[in-house]
TrEMBL record:
The keyword Oxidoreductase does not apply. Keywords: Signal. This is M23ase beta-sheet core domain-containing protein. It comes from bioreactor metagenome. Residues 1-74 are annotated as: Disordered. Residues 1-70 have a biased composition (Basic and acidic residues).
Amino acid sequence: MIAEEVARQEREAEARRLAAEAERKRKAEEVAARVRREAEKGRKTEELARKEPDKTEDVKPAVKQPEPKIESATTADETFNLSKNFVSNRGNLPMPVTGTASIVGSFGQRKHSEWNVTTNSNGIDIQAQQGANIRAVFEGEVSKVFSVPGYNTCVIVRHGDYYTFYGNIYDLFVKSGDKLKSGQSLGRIYTDPDTGVATMHFQLWQKTTKLNPAPWLKR
């Protein structure tokens, strides 16, 4: 009887060990997939920044979103006290989204405590209100409109030697070649249908050099 009980316990322990090993393997695969997605998003945006955008790529139809809580489609009437020289506006550029917003993802290396991995971000993530307008932080020209997995519709705006990148747009208001005013709306922010959270991705480049956008924004 004792031998049978010991054997049973050993079988159960082995089953638990195999189950735990399978769970660790599954989590490792999830982490690897997430890291690959982050790397692919970074690689895609970096490639685009290293070449002069020349045309608008095909943009996939937007996923249906909840009714926006913010009604205004543009922010053209808002006044921005900005210098004509882009670089002189460091620390004074408006947030690239209307309404209440906060930076929830930093530039550079990010340590994900849940996954225990480190990834690298070319920009910052900004959480805002559902239906908020993503807007140009400075006057310029739309260089490219395209799609990146994980960022939905994206827009690059050229300001002389500087470029700004706006990701996670679902309702596009502009096209390649459009001349923009400071604060002009590019589209509405995408809201995750599962969480109800609206987050955009924002990058700043000087030619092909990545810059941390956070110190450039007025908050």
